[in-house]
Amino acid sequence: MTDQDAQPASLRFDEAKSFSDNCRTFLASLEKIDADMAIILRDNWAALIAVVREGERDSKARGEFNSKVTSALDSLLKPAKPNGGA
Amino acid sequence: MSRYFLTRLAVEGFRGVNNENDPLDIGFEPNSVNSVFAVNGIGKSSIFEALCYAIHGAIPKLQSLQAQERPQDYYCNRFHSKNTASIALEFQSDDGTAPISIRIERDAGGNRTVTSPSGHSDPEAFLATLKEAFALLDYRTFARFIEESPLERGRTFSALLGLADYSDCRQALQAASDSRTLNTDLEIKFLTTAIGAVQLAAQQALVTLSSSYENVTGKPLEDIVKLDECADEVTAALGNVELLKAHFVGKALNDIDFGKIKTAIKMAEAGEKRRELEKAVESIAALEALVVHDLAAVADEQHKIGALIDDRDKLLALTRGDLFKRLYESAREVISKDAWTEDEKCPLCDSNLSSSIRGHVDEQLAQYAETAAKIAEIKDMWQASAWKKCLSAHEVAAPLAVEPQARQLAAMDADFVLGDISRDDLAAAVTWTSGLTGKVAGVLMTAQGRKEALEKELPPSLVQLTEQVEYGRQFKDALKIYRNNQQEESVQQSRLDVRERWKTFISKATTVFAEAEGALSKARIKGIDAEYKSMFREIMQVGDVVPDLQRADDREDLHVQLSDFHGQHRLSARALLSESYRNALAISVFLAAALKHSGAPRFVVLDDVTSSFDAGHQYFLMELIRTKLQQPQNTDGLQFIILSHDGLLEKYFDRLGGTTGWHHNKLQGSPPMGAILHQAQGADRLKTTIASLLSAGQVSQAEPLIRQYLEYKLQQIIRRVDIPVPIDFAIKDTSRMVSNCLDAITSAVELHRKAGTLVLDSQQVQDIDTAHVPAIVGNWVSHYETGSGSSLSAPVLSGVIKSIDFLAECFRYDDGSVGATVRKWYRSLSKR
User: Fold this and answer.
1) Residue B580 and residue B586: Cα distance in Å, rounded?
2) Nearest Cα to A77, choosing from B492, B489, B509?
3) Are residues B498 and A41, on separate chains, in Cβ contact within 8 Å?
4) Which of B535, B574, B578, B613 satisfies CB 3.0 to 4.6 Å to B588 for a cystine?
5) Segments in B20-103 forming alpha helices (H)
């Protein structure tokens, strides 16, 4: 489901939770904005995290992340294969 | 989660620590403040760097060197015969889990290996858990905290608050949602251009469809949605011609072979003029398709590109060419380093400048960047322009007969891409385009005239037949082109739409994350608010200067302000605070954050962090650490390891060393070639090493160790029997430390003797006066401290070692008061 006009959902990170747990909550919250896109971001989360490490921005990693996103977006447009097809 | 105290560090062959086969081995106590004192050049910084390398895998100071300076050659001690380094660390957990020992080695080739003698399954991963911003702190860290821009400070501070991952993630999302890079990475511009091209091609096909349909059926094409019906009508109309019937009956337009039909007509009545008529009809269709290009829009684009070229030329005039650009880039690399401290002084003649060099270089490079952006803007505008499409169509249009070698588009494209297009080039291109577009009407008129003439010359039935067949072919081809382009447009539009959907999504996701991260960061800052303010007050002993950290609402910026400055409010801390106040503020903030942290390291190593403090503020900071921050006094406290070269601070360390809650180490030695040892570790090992060197006749190697041994034993006497030393004792010439110690000891003995309070027996006093002190003075002090060039013989130096041991024994006695006799130090010169 997609609601691109939805305003960004208000989210609070839980101080008691780890960074990974809070990221999971964050990704889950994005499904309200656009479920398909949220799945793409979740699937490529590791590639996104590699874009900035210890404060250093890596433009090659950003390119790789966007390349993965582009492939995922194109896959989204391909019609699903009919069941039982050869 | 287990947290860890650092309990041992052993270093060999690393930086200033040679210690070949005899590592510098320092123990740290989890329940005490651990101080390590060394005068300058004795290897204190090497200890800090060893911890940096062990935990972070690099040393910031070496990382900042340029490649040609070969930083990799300076990790291992340059006098170690194997050119290898080893760092051994031991950690004790705060929850009773097993201790962990880690060994880090660096070989001559710069390869790092990490192992765990205690059997940790992943020692490198364990070290990674210790990479917390507060664990290793030096003076530079604190100074930088205040001097950094609010954004850099905010990011540094995120790490300190344990939010480094959040800050990195926020930045990664910002990078991933940046419109400019997204347009490039997701090929959005390319898709937009591709869609424009297929739309134009479809439009051109539609023009041909309309005219050919009308020519075949005699009525206008009114509804392009019903193109299938139109195709049937075209087939039916052509099938009604007797000569063509056989080719059309029962067939759909797509299945009709117009080439075959034309051959059939040719067979029926061959003739050059009929082929010419066909060609004229083809030309008219091709020329009419060119009409769809909006020449007014093309002229407008040409005007805009001209204006952009003017802007670019103005910007270019402000720059000074490629050589200067390279010079400025190199300069920026140099001045961005911390070593560049005098930004307003000429590096060549040392004269004062009226402005900042950094500002000048940034300004010059910004002009180059602005020029590059303008060139990119010109290129982008050309690539997406209707002009380019219009010129492309005109150059390849067969009726205009532009020879391939005369075509200009490829050369213009290259000029635009390289940014080399000049005003003159533009004018020539405009003229070339206008020439071609202006030619269309004339050529069209000629083709129409020729068609009319041929129609008159040829038999009417055949003329009409030939024309009808040609229009039919045009309709079929145009329909195919139109449909293909429509399909292509649909595909490309879907790709563009889904990318735009991602852009909107990732932008919103970034906003959601940034807001949540900001709120978390603010909560953490609030959590340490009272703590750092209280620490600052305690270190600086002030109540009317109150710092305040303010995190921006929509950015990572962290502002340092003074909420109160002697009654005035909300002022800049950077502008008003002196260096010591600024450092006290940074220390307070770092330590308050460290106390709240729950990461793996439960230790803080402070390297010379009090350099800007006077004795009073040093004292207040040390007391704060000792009484309030060190565990277990503070149950949530940390283990502190303080490295210092400060002579005044050493007095404080000496006073507290050995008391409950304070563990002191003093380093001595002769780095980088000789060994470094700490006093507690060193005496027996030193004595053994000296004996072995002297017995081998290696006098010159033994001499620095003898001096270390003498200093250790004399200072041991001073500490044990509580001999007072002058206030400047620790900061006097260290090369005369042996005579300074002897002076303090003999003066104190003399004082007590004259006062009648000396507890030493008469034989001990006589031995001190007549044997041991004269032997040490005669065979060491008067020889080595006066800079005599030659060495004494090995037997004489062995005698010095014996004398110092005998001298120390003069301050001890046999205590038989509680059972077996025990050899003890006098409590003082006047008390047993």
Assistant:
1) 10
2) B492
3) no
4) B535
5) 44-56, 60-63
Is B515 within 8 Å of chain A by CB? yes
Given this model, what pLDDT does residue B819 score?
A: 78
- The DSSP string of B175-217 is HHT-HHHHHHHTTHHHHHHHHHHHHHHHHHHHHHHHHHHHHHH
CATH number of the domain encompassing residue B646: 3.40.50.300
Structure ipTM: 0.92
Q: Give me the mean pLDDT over the B551-560 stretch.
A: 84
Q: Which of B653, B674, B695 is a domain's end point?
A: B674
Question: Is B380 in the same domain as B485?
Answer: no
CB contact under 8 Å between A12 and B172, yes or no, is no
From A84's Cα to the closest Cα of chain B, the distance in A is 26
> Which pTM value belongs to this model?
0.63
* Chain segment B370-383, per-residue pLDDT in tens: 888 888 889 888 98
Question: Which residues make Cβ contacts (< 8 Å) with residue B584, sequence separation at least 6?
Answer: B536, B539, B540, B613, B617, B621
Q: Which domain holds residue B405?
A: 295-440
Task: Name the domain count of chain B.
Answer: 4
Q: How do residues B579-635 score in pLDDT, each as one tens digit?
A: 888 889 989 999 998 998 888 999 999 998 888 888 888 999 999 999 999 999 999
Same domain, B695 and B806: yes
Residue B725 CA to residue B748 CA, distance in Å, equals: 9
Specify if B622 maps to a domain: yes
- What DSSP element (H or E) covers B566? none
56-95 of B, contacting A, C-beta below 8 A: none
Say if the Cβ atoms of B172 and A48 lie within 8 Å. yes
Q: Where are the domains of chain A?
A: 35-77
Are B660 and B7 a contacting pair, CB within 8 Å? Answer: no
Average pLDDT, chain B: 88
Chain A contact for B509, CB < 8 A?
A: yes
Asked whether residue B763 is assigned to any structural domain, the reply reads yes
Of B175, B495, B523, the CB nearest to A52: B175
Asked if residue B153 belongs to a domain, the reply is no
Q: What confidence tens digit (pLDDT) does each residue in B429-446 have?
A: 999 999 999 999 999 999
Min Cα separation B488/chain A (Å):
14
Q: Which residues of chain A have a CB within 8 Å of the CB of B509?
A: 8, 26, 30, 33, 38, 41
pLDDT tops 90 at residue A8: no
pLDDT at B174: 94
